[in-house]
Amino acid sequence: MRISTRLGVLGVFFGCLALTGTASAAGGGGATQAGKGSAEGRGGAGPGGAPGGGGGSTSGVGPSEGRNPDVVRSDVVAKKPWEVGGTWETHRLIRQNDVNNSSKNLNVLGAYAQYDITQYDRVKVRAFLYQRFIADDGETGFRFDDMIFQYTRTIPLPQKFTAHATGWVTAPTSFASQKQGLITAPRLALDLSKQFGEYVTAGVRTSGDALIYKYRTSEGGNYNPKYALRFGADVEVVMPFHKALSIGAGAGTGYTWYYEPNSTNDPNPQVQRLGVTGDPYYSTQPIGQTYSGEIFVRYILPNIIGVKSDIVIAAADGDPSLGSVSVLHDGVAHFYPGYRQTAEVYGTLAIRY
Amino acid sequence: MSFIPSLPVSRSLVAAIALAIGSSVAMGCVSDRPSRNGVFNENQYLRKAFLVRPADPGPDGKPLEDTGWLLKASIMQVSTPNLLGGAVFGVFPGTENGGALVRFKITQDKLEMVNQREFSTAVAAENTRVPEVMNAWPLTNVDLKYRVNLDGEKTNFYEENQELSWDVRQWVKLNFAKNDMSDLAPFPGMQDVLAQCVDMANSTVTLVPNSFKVDERNDYFEWTTEMTFPVQLTNQACIDQYGLRGRDAFNIGKYNQTVTLKYSMVRPERLTAAPGSNNLEQYVPLEVGEKDPIRHKYGFFDWIAWNRDTTSGLVAARQLVIRWNTKKEFITWYFDPGFPEGYKKFFVSADPNDVGTVMGHTNKLLADSGVRARLRFLNANDKDTFGDKKLAGDSPDNQPVQYGDVRYSFLRWISDPDIQDFFAGVTQFVIDPRTGESVSSSIAFNDFAIKDYYVQRIDAYLQTVGASLDVNSPDPWKDPSATCKDGDTMPIVQAKVASNHNGTSTLYAKMQQYLQKPVGTFGNLGPADFTVKQDADFDRAYYALLPYYVYADPDSNPFVLREGGQGVYGPGQVWKMVQDESEFHQTMAKIDQGLSPYEDVTGPHGLDNALGFLNRFRDLTNNHKKLDRAIASMIHPYMHFDAPSAFSFEQIMARDARHCVPDADGNLHWETKEEWTQNLIDTYWSQVAWHEFGHSMGLAHNFMASIDKPNFPHYKDKQGRDHTGLYASSVMEYNAAPDRIFWHAGWAPYDQGAISWIYANDARGPGQGDSISGQSASKDAKFVPPWKDPNGFNATGEIQYLFCTHQHIPYTPLCRQGDSGTTPSEIIANQIDAYEWQYTWRNFRKYRKLWDNSQYAAAPANTIIDMRRFVSMWIFDWNSGELTDSLRRIGIKNPNPKGSDLQYYTQLSNKFNAEASAANQMVGAFHKAVIQQASGERPYRTVYDKYYGDVTQQGIILDKLFAMQGWVAMWPTDNYDPNQAGSYIASYSGIGDDSYTTVAEDAVDSMIGGQYDVYPYFVPLAVAQFAQDTHSPSFSGRIDVRDWIGGHTFTRLPDFLDYFRDLAVQTNAMAQNPTLYAGCTAVATCTYDPRGISDNHNEFLGPDKRLWIWSYVPDRNQWVAVQKERNTASYVIVRNYTDDVIAQLDDGAHPGGAYGALLPMKYFLDSFNNFN
Predict the structure, then answer these.
(1) Does B45 touch chain A (CB under 8 A)?
(2) Mean residue pLDDT across chain A
(3) Looking at the complex, does the CB of residue B20 fall below 8 Å from at least one CB of chain A?
(4) Which residues, 6+ apart, have CB-to-CB distance to A290 below 8 Å?
(5) Residue B810 DSSP one-character state
(6) How far A70 CA sits from the closest chain B CA (Å)?
(7) Chain B within 8 Å of A170 (Cβ-Cβ)?
(8) What is this structure's pTM?
(9) CA B265 – CA B774 distance, rounded (Å)
């Protein structure tokens, strides 16, 4: 098993959901989660991207799922078919005194359970909980994210290549998904990784998402994403002098297609009566493109009576937990690394048994 | 080396593919959530591309000009009482603008409705032309979009957007609220007169909720505004025009008028170039030349398309017939909800070919014309066939059609008695101004109080002659024992009624006396007894000549403006005429109330004042005569009103009858009282229905139809007996014939000819005609007439119909509304009958709670003005020389081939003369009889209830005034052939035969010199009028009649004596009687003194052998001498004085004793001397 990185590929998907989330609630800052420190990225719709660039999609980067820190440790542990685990993440924007970005800190709690049906087949269920430090009166600041039900097929390949094919569906347990009218978000993902020597692991991945909604729009008026396509690559290097320590980097990009406003079918009688003027600037719904990247340091903690853990400290830009980053929307905004509303540092503690 | 298990991989792929497919399918089911509405739904938005559309590409690929919109503006509702419902304003539910072609122009702050019609094409490069803006509404240019966030992502927040320049934004947000009356712009004439009587500055306009409807798919939109305007209460002319409804409104304190006004617009069809066009339904305009002879035969509505000739720059025009497009399959009419079910049978029945219905008979004519279209009638919720009710309103595409929609034609019934009462039916069009096509039409029926208007009047009249119908009694009529057969009739009023009628009429009794047929010798006679019974020779010549006696009003000709003619009927002039009409009635009110219409009757300025009044009165009367025509032609040019009074039937008592009718089982019986009354009402409306529908088919009024006896329709009953279906050749007449009711429904022969002509032709053919109508009277089979005329010919050749319409009325005596009879004597007799019948109704309050006699003067004025018109015809066209010439020119021949044409013409001339003489003798006798009504017969004073002040009997002083001026005054010949302009006619001078002269002179003599019951100022008016007009250089005929009121006045006794002494010298009287004329070889030696030889009436035989009378006027110290034979009227006056004062034989005829008898002498001689 290999160590997972911060921006699990699942983040790509969650990022696309975040795009259409309740943007105003997060004030542009609150995208959601990636499975930093955890064994895998996590799913669910976060509080959403901000309008005007906050659509916190990301292309999750980092090694593909299944990279198990245990492999790095080379501890041969008796293989059991099931595993449970949890993560705690804490995010902090680098720029704290910026205006118009009220959500500058964020915690994410995650839990999962998995079962290996065969050597190559795994099913898994995951759930997450956010904690934001802004809330309306009477709110706790905690909100659930969507639950994920996934199946992964591991495909060993020659030359130390490993491929994973994953499919999942979600349950719309998040506030944002309910606002969006999300029914489920099926996804197909494929990643390919290779270990180079003893200390270096690299991988590339892609995923495609189809989002199934009751409505094309969320309650807030934003149009829901329709499809998403993501690409990413990462590399992680274990320190030879201390194999519990590793450093890594990842980058990714993604594309999101949105539903078009449909004046013909709009049930609003006013729209039916009057129709809609075509927009000379935006004749079609733009395709959202996002970028992300991070560098991180991971340290694997000692195994204590079968409980494994690791911590990660990372600097990231484009973590979907904080919404969009470096969004390039048909030329409206430009690639901008270190964007003040998304550049962050975060730490992750992951525990599993 | 592969160690990938094949099966799991395969499963994965299958699962992945299944997931992908499942996802795609599921995504296809995603619904649209209602967008967030940032647009007020009470706002009114219109797409600019809908309003202002770059039109279809032309042959060169460039967009054609915007075709614009066909606008119909309709007044839908009116608050009651409706002050503005009279003829001048014409504001009633259903008033329409006649259609207009407009387009829209959008500025940064206004939506401008621009008149699409341009007179000419301007040179674009010169930039000198801007379109006329008819109306405008405030607007905001907006886009209506889903909000786009700053990333360019579209949200579902629906909102206005203004980021683009105003001129490229695609919507306009309209504001219909106003504080003016500019929305009445489509009614230019109405707007003009309303502006005189409403407070425009305090008007308000708001959009009626939910009335703004846009149907882009069908290129249609509409909206309705509610307008309120305070009415003016200080303008007497306005108050007069409010009429009875004005009084109602004031009684209950309503001083505003609120109306709702619908604008309905649809894009007109594009006028694609006809050559090569595949549009088989393309309308083809029918153009008829300005002087095409067919206009003599048929009357149709012209649409004049004015423009400027591009080559010459001169004004040009095309005269297009207003008609339906018969290239289409159907001409569809809808019954508005509320249209009486029982009256739909006038239009449609189960048998589509039933010629007793409008549909069946009209479709037959359309078939005769060879056109495709057929009429159909539907309810508003029918789709294809009458009664299918397929437009149930259960879907947007299934909505019943609505009145006011420019696309649909409606039959509408209005029964709100507070709305208005000035019309029975009105037909209006929406005309495509490019072609004259009637795009849609409407007919409104106004359910006025017909039972009161007719049935009660009939009964009221009959009560006066002891033959009441007892229409208000619950007792049924008694049925005769005999059974009846189809076609049987039974006079309700037996023959005795006519006798009673004549016997009780003080008017008729006097006329009889004046016409030399005293009661003692001839029994009780009525006007009908003085008509001339003409023979077939007369009829043949008469109907051949009549088409040549139709004269148009030059001011109604649109193509030639005579001097000053442009403004005569201009909108500004109309209001001036309305104001004059108000003055007319104010003056009449003063007279009716017993006040002198002029001051200083017997003083030094009395004569001048009297003449001033008379001349103004004459102008006002002329104005009154012209006003209705001006209103119709200028204010509501495309509304064709038919007033209730137009359908009078004054002879109904004598000529209508109970009918033999079937019951539900088909058994025949005599009409009961209720059936008779209901049938009377139903058949009345039936006639209105056919008449109005004639308008809608394009027919103009035909006011000579009631003359056109050869073309009256006939039908046979089941016994084979012939009946006259209608006493007119056309339903487009305002005939007063009794069978206006109980008529035989259907298009009359003229209507059949006219309708089938209108629709059979798309253009004039190459043939030539030789008849007055430009068709052919030839029997030569090879002779091709220029027009297709399916019902204009019969086996013997062309049918010559008589036709005249509004523009002919003022100048054509036989072109009359509301008349009956076919010859002048019949027409006059019926007119007098009508006057007499109306007297009993018009002058007595009867049962009425509210008796409105505020416009009383109009009735005698109209009657009397109309009566003198045959005099002109007699003078100018029916004199022997003219007649002979005319008969020869039109080819009348002596039916006896061996006889002399000239001799035949003489015989005919005598018959024409007898006809004219009889008619005009009746007129003269009528005038005198009115004047001579004694107070005990018909009081000239209006009678009031002493305590309550209500009028209980209307006096006839106004009748007498009109009769006096109508007969005594000299009138310009402005009522006949305009080529006779400049001539003046006095009814009693130089006209006609001896019989007429006797009656005429007797009448005028009695008016100026006779004794009759009137106010004291009255006779001086007559005398002044006579003096003035007989001394006019335009006075023709017997110049010596001016001396009737003449005489000699002397301010010194020696002058008086010297006048007669000189006469004795001049006549050498001394030779005859040396004693009496002693010394009369010279005045100075002559001792002759008439005083000494006069009898006790101061009469004496003068030296000239003529009978003289003299008198002394003590307060003027004047001597008066009047010759009996020459100064006939003066003689009577002086004789009255000498009788009363000198001979002491006062008969009480001159109140005031000597003064009362002396006064006439003063104004007689003053008047005479003033002009002599």
Answers:
(1) yes
(2) 75
(3) yes
(4) A15, A55, A56, A57, A58, A59, A253, A254, A256, A318, A324, A325, A326, A327, A328
(5) G
(6) 24
(7) no
(8) 0.80
(9) 40
Q: Please indicate whether, in this complex, the C-beta atoms of A280 and B164 are within 8 angstroms of each other.
A: yes
How close A276 comes to chain B (CA, Å)?
A: 5
**What is the mean pLDDT of the segment spanning B1074-1082?**
92
Does residue A23 contact residue A328 with C-beta atoms inside 8 Å?
no
Q: What count of residues does chain A have?
A: 353
Sign of the dihedral through C-alpha B191, B197, B200, B202? negative
Cβ contact, residue pair B16, A285, below 8 Å = no
**Spatial distance between the Cα atoms of B332 and B441, rounded to a whole number of angstroms:** 10
Q: Which of A22, A271, A330 is the best residue to mutate to test the B interface, defined by the most B CB atoms within 10 Å of its own CB?
A: A271
Q: How far apart are CA A70 and CA B593, in angstroms?
A: 126
Q: How far is B13 from chain A (nearest CA, A)?
A: 9
- DSSP string of B283-315? ----B--TT-THHHH--B-EEEEEEE-TTT--E
**In 10 A of CB A111, how many CB atoms?**
17
Calpha distance B176→B209 (Å, rounded): 11
For B683-712, the DSSP string reads HHHHHHHHHHHHHHTTBPP-TTTTT-GGG-
Residue type, B775: Q
Mean predicted confidence (pLDDT) in B713-722: 89
Check if B31 contacts A (Cβ < 8 Å).
yes
Contact residues, A window 59-78, toward B, CB-based 8 Å cutoff: none
Answer for the pair B785, B732: CB distance below 8 angstroms, yes or no: no
Is residue B165 within 8 angstroms of chain A, CB to CB? no
Q: Using CB atoms, which residue from B23, B146, B158 is nearest to A186?
A: B23
d(CA A308, CA B592): 123
B14 close to A (CB below 8 A): no
Whole-number Å distance between alpha carbons of B1100 and B1120: 13
Neighbours of B1082 (CB within 10 A): 10
Q: In terms of DSSP bridges, do strands B330-335 and B374-379 run parallel, antiparallel, or are they unpaired?
A: parallel
B795 and chain A: CB distance < 8 Å anywhere?
Answer: no
Contact (CB, 8 A) for B418 and B81: yes
What 3-state DSSP class applies to B1010?
coil
- DSSP state, residue B1139: I
Name chain B contacts of A225, Cβ cutoff 8 Å.
none
Helix B506-514 with B901-931: angle, nearest 10 deg = 130
User: Min CA distance, A273 vs chain B (Å)?
Assistant: 8
Give me the DSSP letters along B488-528. Answer: -EEESS-HHHHHHHHHH-HHHHHHHHHTT--HHHH-S--GG
Task: Give the CA dihedral B334, B337, B339, B345, nearest 10 degrees.
Answer: 50
CB contact at 8 A, B1143 and B1157: no
- Joined tokens for residue B934: 């004694």
The Cα–Cα gap between B1081 and B997 comes to 42
Residue A228: closest CA among A5, A18, A6, A4: A18
CA distances from A46 to A99, A108, B407, B428 (A): 22, 11, 57, 68
Number of cross-chain residue pairs from A and B with Cβ atoms under 8 Å apart: 162
- Cα–Cα distance measured from residue B1072 to residue B1092, given in angstroms and rounded to the nearest whole number: 18
Q: How far apart are CA B948 and CA B1090, in angstroms?
A: 58
Residue B310 reports pLDDT greater than 80: yes
- Give dist(CA A32, CA A175) in Å, integer: 12
What residue in B sits closest to A273 (Cα-Cα)?
B214
Encode B57-87: b = buried (16+ Cβ within 10 Å), e = exposed.
eeeeeeeeebbbbbbbbbbbbbbbbbbbbbb
Q: What pLDDT digit, counting tens, does each position of B667-680 carry?
A: 888 888 888 888 88
pLDDT in tens, A251-273: 888 888 888 777 788 888 888 88
